[in-house]
Write a structure and sequence with these properties.
With 103 residues, the protein is an all-alpha fold. The protein has five helices and no strands. The longest helix has 35 residues.
């Protein structure tokens, strides 16, 4: 048995939008460090750092995709995958009907 198998599996924590917003505000508005806020809230620094980075992008203080742009990109990728699947299904159905009608 490996070391990884011996350790209990961690469940992924989820945080509300309000919690994230308040944590980011502690960093940006109260000018506290990410490490300090993360420690006081019992969260991982990298999570808080990502939230702060995204907040700065949303505020226009930093380059990158805004939250709205990310959501739209995700939606469009999902829609694109659905359309590709439907197109492939139509191609197969057309080929089937051509084959069946040719006999």
């Amino acid at each position: 048995m490996s070391v990884v198998e011996d350790q209990p599996r961690r469940t992924r924590r989820s945080f509300t939008v309000e919690f994230k917003r308040d944590a980011v505000a502690m960093v940006l508005e109260q000018e506290r460090t990410i490490a300090d806020v993360a420690r006081s809230l019992g969260i991982v620094e990298s999570n808080l750092g990502n939230w702060v980075k995204q907040a700065r992008i949303d505020r226009g203080e930093r380059d990158g995709l805004t939250t709205e742009e990310r959501a739209e990109l995700t939606r469009l990728r999902r829609e694109n995958a659905q359309l590709r699947m439907e197109r492939e299904l139509l191609k197969r159905a057309t080929a089937f009907w051509v084959k069946e009608s040719g006999q």
